[in-house]
Amino acid sequence: MRLIVREDPKAVAYYTANYVRLRINEFRPTHRRPFVLGLPTGSTPVEVYWHLVDFYKRGELSFRNVVTFSMDEYVGLPKAHPECYCSFMHRHLYDHINLRPENINMLDGNADDLTAECQRYEDRIREVGGIELFLGGIGPDGHIAFNEPGSSLESATRVKTLAYETVLANARFFGGDVDRVPKLALTVGVGTVRAAREVLLIITGAHKAVALAKCIEEGVNHMWTLSVVQLHPSAMIVCDEDATLELHVKTVRYFKSIEQVQEQLIGRQNIGLKGSISRLHHGSTGTPGAQTSDSQVLTDSDMSSAHSDDGMSTTSVTPTSPADLPADGSGEDCAEPNNGHSPAATDGTPF
């Protein structure tokens, strides 16, 4: 597991969106081999979506061969309701990018048979070959999606009763009226998230500091469902400084030192985007020519010559290590940053 600490929520949002951009471009998706992306709802990812829209509008990212799966949906809320997660995803992301409608997958909280709807969702995920990258946030009690404390760590997509703390937290989206908040939801399971080939979680704010500490410094526990990422072979948490307040100082220093070693001693040119070390060039601090994995680092020419199967050129990008991703919106992988962040963050919204 990797822990990336950035100064504030804006830096976290930019880092996360830029990582997603690089992963999609590195993958070079085609119609027959799409990039399958799991996406969260709630307030945490909104600014991430603004940046993704901004990348698309600047021609740095295409969603033409991306397939998405939303994490959850309220039961009984009309699709036209502004707080329905179907409306949420369209409002903040889908209506502003070139994602094909047939590639958008969302749970139907108004289905006649909710159990069958959950099974349909799991079947659809398998049909497209599984989720490549699952992006998620957490609740103050450490839950992923609507997998409340006590959820099975092997659970699949299902109907879930929301905990009272979650209902209270979501009341702000319903005028502060707890009675208007749905009490049931459809949610992907902890096992569904674990099955993704990569998991990236966003955690910001002091109110989530206890959850982060429980999930990183203590054992795997179904009362803190986020802790399951300890078992995942490719998991990354991106958090702000406030979210680390309950962590031991040595824990934060350890993860920051790993990033520093990757950046300064190993060298960004030797680190794959997901953190794997594929080779060390002559002249680097490490052993010249050493190889620690079978993965290959893609070059600029590899990416610039790539084309999708529908004739569209992909965006040229140099894959980088997580340490190379800018914390403040600056760096060679970003186009004309604006005061430390892309225009999406500084203008409030790109649409």
UniProtKB/TrEMBL annotation:
The keyword Isomerase applies. The gene is NAG1_2. Residues 284-321 have a biased composition (Polar residues). This is Glucosamine-6-phosphate isomerase. GO terms for cellular component: cytoplasm. InterPro entries: Glc/Gal-6P_isomerase, Glucosamine6P_isomerase, Glucosamine6P_isomerase_CS, NagB/RpiA_transferase-like. It comes from Coemansia biformis. It is an enzyme of class 3 (hydrolase). One of its GO terms (molecular function) is glucosamine-6-phosphate deaminase activity.
